[in-house]
Amino acid sequence: MTRTRYTPDRGLTTRMVTTMFLIGLLYVVLVGVLLAVLNHAWPIILIVAGGLFIAQFWFSDRIAAFGMGAHEVTPEQAPELHGAVDRICALADMEKPRVAIARSDIPNAFATGRSERTALVCATTGLLRRLEPEELEGVLAHEMSHVAHRDVAVMTIASFLGVLAGLMTRIALYSGLSRSNQNASPAGIVIMLIPLVSAVVYVIGFLLTRLLSRYRELSADRTAALLTGRPSALASALTKVSGQMARIPTEDLRKAEPYNAFFFVPAFSSKESLSRLLSSHPPLEQRLDQLARISEELARP
């Protein structure tokens, strides 16, 4: 973790290290299977896999910011937002990230970046219009906690495996590798199993990133509440934003759904038990209960 005044979270660090190890192991297994089966094409496999990894790591944050329509703003253009970020940076003793605004009525915020130097914190116009100053500071402290703990970078890398597994599945299905004349040979049988192996890898990677994502949101809530000393303000922001989501057209929420893992509150969430289990965020009730406990602890003499 970067040396800031954000409370260190050993549980988050342990989960990030474990997730990265397991994701790396899955990545090695997937590439190893491809190299063993398609040994004549190993240079192409290594180039494609390496190129995708580099692209995912270096450009995923820019892609997410571009997809949400984030535009970097100066202190003159958004004095209230910059002022809130400056106060959080002073409290946390951390380098100021780039500040952006996304013109969207969906009340939300997100942070991207591989490190503090490349970090960007963005709030939507819908969020700025609806929140009080203390509530906004709570949300920004939450997002900047992701930057301080570097879990944004971990999530970026972890999500790469799913992209690679999906790509390999498409290659195996549409490149003609599993033609009928290969079915009888051992190599043909193995090649036909590539989509299955890729699907298993994708599912495991998906579950690992979901488990990490849910915990990191609770960690960001906790550290933001302790940093600002106002867990009630963050709880108020959570309640207000979640309630306002119901008034946003479903079509708009669906468009923003792919970026749920980056958001303060998921743009679209289902009330079905299975969907909530696989959600990128913990239930609202769990987040509010945690903040209520922190508020009680801070009130004790």
From TrEMBL:
Pfam families: Peptidase_M48 (PF01435). Zn(2+) binds at H142, H146, E217. GO terms for molecular function: metallopeptidase activity. The chain crosses the membrane at residues 12-35, 41-59, 152-175, 187-208. Keywords: Cell membrane, Hydrolase, Membrane, Metal-binding, Metalloprotease, Protease, Transmembrane, Transmembrane helix, Zinc. It is found in: Cell membrane. Residues 76-293 form the Peptidase M48 domain. It is a multi-pass membrane protein. Binds 1 zinc ion per subunit. The active site is at E143. Belongs to the peptidase M48B family. This is Protease HtpX homolog.
